[in-house]
TrEMBL record:
PANTHER family (alphabetical): DEVELOPMENTALLY REGULATED GTP-BINDING PROTEIN-RELATED (PTHR11702), MITOCHONDRIAL RIBOSOME-ASSOCIATED GTPASE 2 (PTHR11702:SF31)
Residue ranges constituting the OCT domain according to the UniProt record: 350-433
Entry's localization field: Cytoplasm
Protein's name according to its UniProt entry: GTPase Obg
GO molecular function: GTP binding; GTPase activity; magnesium ion binding
Subunit structure: Monomer.
């Protein structure tokens, strides 16, 4: 199947890149076993961007290849190395491209060189544990996951940006008119529907330069799908004025200039949105004697309707100069209206604060609870549920946001099922207010006090040391000759050399105390 050279409507699938995961790493070097967290952040995923390119005149590239994907962000690394960002994909589109969602909602109308629209936003990279560290969480043992990039189905529709639009029946001479008043060279032949795509021509009239577009021939019922015109009526929506090109030399039965005009106007009305455009009537082919007579007969009646009428001949170029300057006059007035400065007084008011950041509602089916909101759902996507500390961090974030308080306020009980989000990434958990997440973390959920708290062995050793010093100062009279002999290996928080010296000191102390007791026994004996 041949691929057309001109395409003005396509459906494309765009997918942005995923953000890279953050890295959970601890700095290590000689004599510094716990140098602190140094995991870098993940890189952001690349975005898909649509941008107006003056060198692009058709959407045919996206007809051939309708799937476009950006690259993912790289994962963070240790030693504070952030992952690289994914590369953006910039798609060039013609000026006048209208971007719509799959449901028909218009998202953007790109007019002007360089105008762009982010079709799919790349996912944010996850934070590494270095970025998550704080005064209360000095050594996070987790990092955040990168977010998925957007995936969307978009409809791109080209509406030619032209100042003047030529409309009329097939073979009325629209392409010949464009070729006569500009340097455009559209296909011209003596059979209907010669023009299969809109043709643009640049016209110069005095100091005014403007563009003219001819629309493939309209016929009765074009707005309902007959012929080719229904596919191209959109191209006249941006025009400052419409020029009816009427064939005064047609020999088809039932056709005359007045009926042709009424038929085309009915199709334009059915299409809608063109009622305010100025109209000019060009009575073409007056180089044919009978056509000139017909043009003279209908000119007065057309002018009575308030229309500006110009008899022309694209073959002999008669009347073309007057028509060109009439079109230029409308274009100049239209541009002046658009460029007129807006004198409306601008009033800046404080923006109204948005509603709550989340919503909580009870599910009627099983009595569970549903939490919805951008923040909670995004936090869920960032959480690695295989890591208990990361899960606790999520619980802390939800608690600070007020989710737990709202659930209690609405009557949630411990053990109730709570679901966050209602999409494919939704999670369900049992409601457990103020319960620590993770058996080792006994303080606030998600925080790690392992660097602040003493190990049990160190606590036991400190207790025995205080008892020993109390004995040495005479506060206790118990026998401490065997002090230190029953310590467990995990109670000695010292190097092997220090442990050896401590054992020697304990043995020396025991021998000294034995000699003192032996001397006391001899004196008393």
């Amino acid at each position: 199947m041949a691929i057309p050279s001109f395409v003005d409507r396509v459906t494309v699938q765009v997918a942005a890149g995923r953000g890279g995961n953050g890295c959970a790493s601890v700095h290590r070097e000689k004599f510094k076993p716990l140098g602190g967290p140094d995991g870098g952040n993940g890189g952001d995923g690349g975005s898909v961007i649509l941008r107006v390119d003056p060198d692009v005149t058709t959407l045919v590239d996206y007809h051939r290849s309708s799937h476009r994907t950006a690259t993912n962000g790289a994962q963070g690394k240790g030693d504070h190395q952030a992952g690289s960002n994914g590369g953006d994909v910039v798609l060039g589109v013609p000026e006048g491209t209208v971007i719509s969602a799959a449901n028909g909602e218009v998202l953007a109308d790109l007019v002007g060189p360089g105008a762009e629209f982010i079709a799919a936003q790349g996912g944010k990279g996850g934070l590494g544990n270095a970025a998550l560290a704080s005064s209360s969480r000095r050594a996070p043992g987790f990092a955040l996951l990168g977010e998925d990039g957007e995936e969307r189905t978009l409809v791109l529709e080209l509406k030619v940006v032209a100042d003047i639009g030529l409309v009329g029946f097939p073979s009325a001479g629209k392409s010949s008119l464009v070729a006569s008043i500009s340097r455009a060279r559209p296909k011209i032949a003596d059979y209907p529907f010669t023009t299969l795509i809109p043709n643009l021509g640049v016209v110069i009239a005095g100091d005014t330069t403007f563009t003219v577009a001819d629309v493939p021939g309209l016929i009765e019922g074009a707005s309902e799908g007959r012929g080719l015109g229904h596919d191209f009526l959109r191209h006249v929506e941006r025009c400052a004025a419409l020029v009816h090109v009427i064939d005064c030399a047609t020999y088809e039965p039932g056709r005359d200039p007045l009926s042709d005009l009424d038929t085309i106007e009915a199709e334009l009305k059915a299409h809608g949105g063109l009622e305010d455009r100025p109209r000019i009537v060009a009575l073409n082919k007056i180089d044919v004697p009978d056509a000139r007579e017909i043009a003279e007969m209908v000119q007065a009646e057309l002018e009575q309707r308030g229309l500006r009428v110009y008899p022309i001949s694209t073959a002999s170029h008669e009347g073309l100069e007057a028509l060109k300057y009439a079109m230029a006059d409308i274009v100049v007035r239209r541009r002046a209206e658009q460029e007129k400065p807006d004198t409306t007084r601008i009033v800046i008011r404080p923006q109204v604060q948005g509603g709550p950041e989340f919503k909580v509602k009870q599910l009627p089916e099983d009595g569970g609870w549903l939490v919805q909101g951008d923040k909670p759902e995004r936090w869920v996507r960032q959480t690695d549920f295989a890591n208990a500390e990361a899960t606790g961090y999520l619980a802390d974030r939800l608690n600070r946001l007020g989710v737990e308080e709202q659930l209690i306020k609405l009557g949630a009980q411990a053990g109730d099922a709570v679901m966050i989000g209602d999409g494919p990434n939704a999670i369900v958990f049992d409601f457990a207010p103020d319960v620590a997440a993770g058996a080792e973390i006994l303080a606030r959920r998600g925080e790690d006090h392992r660097l602040e708290e003493d190990r049990p062995a160190a606590q036991r050793r400190r207790t025995k040391d205080s008892e020993y010093h109390a004995y040495r100062s005479g506060e206790r009279a118990e026998d401490w000759a065997e002090h230190g002999q029953d310590w467990d290996a995990d109670e000695v928080d010292m190097s092997p050399a220090e442990a050896k010296r401590a054992a020697e000191a304990a043995a020396k102390l025991a021998r000294k105390e034995a000699r003192e007791r032996a001397a006391e026994n001899t004196e008393n004996g």
